Predict the 3D structure of the following.
Amino acid sequence: MLGYMGSIIRVNLNDGSIGKEPLDKELIGKFVGGRGLNSKILYDEVKPGTDPLGPDNKVIMGAGPCNGTIVPGSCRFTVTSKSPMTGLLGDSNAGGFFGAEIKYAGYDLIIIEGKSDAPVYLWIDDDKIELRPARHLWGKTPRDTIRAIQKENLDPGIHAVSIGPGGENLVRFANLITELGRALGRTGQGAVFGSKRLKAVAIRGTKGVKVANLDTLEEAVREIHDAWTESAGTGDGLNTTLDLRARYGSAC
C-alpha cells in the first residue's frame, strides 16, 4: 500500500469510542485519494434521508497518496459529509500542512460520527488519539482556537482544522479553517462540525510516507519543476502536465 498508510481512524461522538480500521486495498485502486475514498464511504454509510445536521451524518477527512511526499501541489486534503447547503454529497478542500500531517501520524482517513453531549476537539498525536473537552474553546474564532490548542500542547507546530461561531450556530454555509487562514469554504462543512459539537481536529505526526519508487519520483519532480519553469508564460503547462502524468503516474 505504498503511498498510503493503510489505516483509518473512526470516532463515535455518541459514546466517545475511538477505533482504528485497515484501509481496504480494493478501494484504493477504484477511488484514488481523499475525495474518491471519502465519497465512497459517505455513499456506503450515510443513508438517504439523513439530516445533514443530525447525528447520523458523518464527517470524513481524507488525504491522498501523494500527501506528505515531495510531489508538487500535493498538500490538499478533503472533508466530506452530506451537505446542509444542498442535501447532497458535499466536500471541500484546502491546502496547508494538515493533509500531510494526517499521513505523518499514520492514517489516510478520519471518520467522525454521532454527536457529542458537550463541545469537544479531537486530538491525534501519532498513535495517541483522544477526545478532549472544548468548552473553553467554544465561541472562539478558528484562529484563536488553533493558537489555544497549540499553546495547551506546548507545540506551535501542531496543525488543526477548526470552526468559529458560524459553525457553532449551524450557519449552513459555515467554513472550516486551517493554518490560521486557509478555508474549506464550500458545502457548509463548518455547520456539520457544529452540529456534532466538534470544535476542532488537531493533529501531530512524526512518521514518514513510503513511496513505490523514490528515484523515479525524484526524477519526475525534477522534470515537473523544469518543465513548468520553461513553459511559464507559454500557455503549454497543461500539455506538459498531462505528458508527465502519463510517464510517471505510478511513481507514488
